[in-house]
């Protein structure tokens, strides 16, 4: 049995995504959501072993809390200090993080990668996974912009190669950086359904060179105001759904311990999500 845990989690698209992939692969495995409140991980891990859970995905608020509870950690989980995929191997819990790899695959899928120069908005958990993974591609400068600059500095210090640079979030700074970039990735919740805040100024998009792209990790709504504004300027756009799909494919590879036909599964999932 496979699961996704979080609180809240019943709204998650992961069961639909994984069930579609498992069905396509002809595997008789279930994938269900399980509400686990913050602080409930130790009890859940004991329950999962007793109930034949061989792997699970984790969303908020558990990604960082899983780190000390794992017996072994994969390289990406160590690098960004968060876990979103957990496998049971010979009685031991092994934690991985597929968010960064999922983002990179989504950018390739949407034709937004490679990009020379990246402006990342936000410095939270999602930004950390994305920034550290893209930094390994060494595409040129990557700026991490955050209203609290010290948080951006803390993230950038995790990059051993010095590709990441902290920056402020004001319109003037964003415009200056965008003039030197080909890609903007929003890792904040600005524009998300239910979030009371929105971007105060979209003028920084005007500074992006022709042919640039904008990715928003949000997929509710499917097209945020940021993506509307980018598309109106003739820029390439991508919401967070392709990243969700590709990180799930990489997670399933960990669950099954084998390589899978990624693009084939992606098409299966996109069709299931549109049904």
Structure description:
By secondary structure, the protein is α/β, with parallel strands linked by helices. It has two domains: 2-97 and 242-274, Rossmann fold (3-Layer(aba) Sandwich); 100-239, NAD(P)-binding Rossmann-like Domain (Rossmann fold, 3-Layer(aba) Sandwich). It has helices at residues 14-24, 41-50, 75-80, 99-109, 125-136, 149-156, 171-178, 225-232, 241-256, 262-274, and strands at residues 2-6, 31-35, 55-58, 72-73, 85-89, 92-96, 118-121, 142-145, 164-167, 183-186, 213-216, 236-238. The protein has a six-stranded mixed sheet with strand order 2-1-3-5-6-4. Strands 9-8-7-10-11-12 form a six-stranded parallel sheet, sandwiched between helices. A hairpin with a 2-residue loop joins β5 (85-89) and β6 (92-96). It starts with a strand and ends with a helix.
If you average the pLDDT, what whole number results?
96
Q: State the total count of DSSP E strands.
A: 12
Major sheet: order of its strands?
2-1-3-5-6-4
Structural class: alpha/beta
Largest sheet: 6 strands, mixed
Query: Total helix count?
Result: 10
In sequence order, what are the helices and strands, one letter per element? Answer: EHEHEEHEEHEHEHEHEEHEHH
Q: Over all CA atoms, what is the radius of gyration?
A: 19 Å
How does CATH name the architecture of the largest domain? 3-Layer(aba) Sandwich
Total discrete domains: 2
Q: Helix amount, in percent?
A: 25-40%
Q: Specify the overall morphology.
A: globular
CATH topology of the largest domain: Rossmann fold
Give me the CATH superfamily of the largest domain.
Answer: NAD(P)-binding Rossmann-like Domain
CA(first)-CA(last) distance: 25 Å
Unreliable residue stretches: none
DSSP strand (E) fraction?
A: 15-25%
CATH class term of the largest domain: Alpha Beta
